[in-house]
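Good morning,

Both structures are done.
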Amino acid sequence: MIDRVIWIILDSVGMGELPDADRFNDIGSNTIGNIAKQYGLDVPNMRKLGLANIEGMVNLEKVSEPEGVYGRVAELSNGKDTTIGHWEMVGIHSPKAFPTYPNGFPKEVTDKFEEYVGKKILGNKPASGTAILEELGKEHIETGRPIVYTSADSVFQIAAHEDIVPIEKLYDMCQAARDILVEEHAVARVIARPFKGELGSFYRTANRRDFSLNPPEEMLLDVIKEQGLDVIGVGKIEDIFSGKGITEAIHTKDNMDGVDQTIKYMQQNNKGLIFTNLVEFDSAWGHRNNVEGYAKGLEAFDSRLPEIISNMKDTDVLMINADHGCDPTMPGTDHSREYVPFLAYGKSLKSNTDLKTRKTFADIGQTIGEILGVKKLNIGESFLENIKK
């Protein structure tokens, strides 16, 4: 019997371009493979579960008898961002991409936002989150004008110094922007990007908050909650789903805090789903083209895996996968359209089980739904019968 799933998302840890990567300018992207080639990657515990044995994996040494379930998963939806990836995992297909703004946001959006804030905005263009602070941070401190910027993703980001704009005021601005950005301008996320420090040493704080679109239909988290089970969000999970289907949540300051909080919840008597997002792979290293940092981050997570497994009950299943790629070795700083790796482990699961390539992230959600005995999702095929003892 399985009564709890621990589902950990390694945010942006892709494993090679999808067949349609050319549509997204992502030919050559392979987050894990390119990091392993350029820097090296010592991840023995994930390899032990089968990471290197996944179909299409390169530059990692296979093991002869993997102890887990392993495979790679393709994205069906039209995108390569956090929201679309997580939504697909829980059964929402997004054939239409969210709007993006390579030339900044139109006047009809910025006028309404400036009217609410009472100040003109700075920026209004695609930019690196750290570079735009160096460019506009001093002027922001002198004027109090918020910095608004976007990226290749569907995001409206607001940066403000915590000593100039209190956190709650920044969150209020973000909620106002979320209310403005609807219909044709319904971006996937409005993101609060608070920072501190001085010119030349600005740094973003852990008080980031995402204001996401509401999921458009019933999905896995809703039906688990309706069944009276726990749905515990660790990290930015609560933000990604706008709180829908969540019974309890905690935000985290970094990956290791995310692992700590996950283990704390594992040690409690909950039943259902513990759903964790470890965002530093994406935010701190992928978008910063920091190959060494990304590699060390993967190794740090890998070093915690035995601790996670040792805290599992016999009735637990652990699942690990990503939501898109963000190859730090590529010239740009944006997400990449990639397959994602999938690993699973538990006393009730078979060992050395190769799932090959799955067609949609929703296969994972459909499998979790079947494990927990909830109604089927709109998309995805469960692979439970292939992996259960």
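Second structure follows.
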Amino acid sequence: MEKPEVESIEGLSPAISIDQKTTSKNPRSTVGTVTEIYDYIRLLYARIGTPYCPNCGTKIEKQSIDQIIDNIMSLPEGTKIQVLAPVVRSRKGEYTKQLQGYQKEGFVRVRIDGEVYELGEDDIKIEKNKKHEIELVVDRLVIKENIISRLTESVEVALKHAENMVLIDVVGSKPILYSCNYACPTCGFSFPELTPRMFSFNNPFGACPECTGIGYLMKMDEDLIIPDKNKTLYDGIKAFGASTMKKGDTMARMYFESIARHYGVEIKNKKIKSLPRWFMEKILYGTGDEEIDFEYASYAGIRRFTQPFEGVLPTLDRRHNETKSQGMRDFYEMYMSNSPCNSCHGARLKPEILSIKVGSKNINQLTEMSIRNIKEYLNNLKLNKTQAMISELILKEIDQRLQFLIDVGLEYLTLSRSAGTLSGGEAQRIRLATQIGSGLTGVLYILDEPSIGLHQRDNDKLLATLKKLRDLGNSLLVVEHDEDTMLSADQIIDIGPGAGIHGGKVMAQRYS
């Protein structure tokens, strides 16, 4: 657009357009993230959340040094361990000066992303833009009765350098993290200090590792692979090569016939729907550890081999993951659908994060409630004096922002709902509520039919919200055909006489 032919324009407020387009299609965007309420809820859980052990359900409290030593000494005698201080956990940076400082303090070795380096001798280069795990090697010990004094001293050094945490690397077994912050007295499970990033499904520190925080996985869909069960195995299975078979010229035919021969099932001229379900499970999902004798005839001769069958669906999933061709990836995705993550079941977060509760609910259970129910739940929380003092301002901010959403008629939404599933009207009213929460003044807001899709009983709520935005010291320009909205306006301008190229003229103007 060309610049207007004017010398100067004065008194024009900064403008924000709130139109009817849907919010982000990013699968990581939810109602909670786009309204920023989820940020405050993460802060609430980090400050007053109560951890429970994900293994045994025991309430987790801080561990003393004596308890840590007792747990370590309970390892079998002769066990080799390393006492490590986890000084950097999942953070970006080069850490050159920090490593030099540790060397001056007398530390000899450091473990970076699983690799052990000699401080001062090895040329340690750390990629600045990648997240790293850095642990100081404090001591190396073998579990015996006479090491308690040395072990205690080493643990104290590690706790001092790693924010009250110590990592015991047990040779031949999983490392054990102990913390003077939170640890289970029953099974020894430890939590680091609770931070808001632990409750973010957009941060690897808190996101479910299997689905990376999206909540679902794209997997091969049996119904898309076999759209017509009235066909035979030879022509009814898509994407695996079966649908293009000619007699004796594909590996797919060889697989099916060998498996059928192994289990004594007749598949020739048999419809898929008439085959035993247990046999179709072997075809679709594999034979596990059970080996099959395969025989493949080609122009080069007959080839015989014995191995388990991977299964049609796992094979196609693997091909999709391994291919470097975008065309092939798009082809395989035609036969895939979204299914809930097997690890987090759609909750997006790690199991240990979901074991942290405020009241009786974890953060996923809270965000799956409707906005009105969340407001009631948080208002009725029973907190001790310390928790109440810590959370007062956080709860006040959450309550206000939830009320803004209720005021625009969105009390039925859940904070966990994907932003891409919202209608244009819902998305617009969410942005409207977010703007009220931001508390800006002196801004010109332009709204495109904010009442669209809104039930008539909620119109008064919307109008009250618009007036609240005006009373903050802003100007509102609303394109609207709703009678109640027009009657509530401070000024009405009728543009016409027709629409599009047939309009553009001021037909009438009225001040209230």
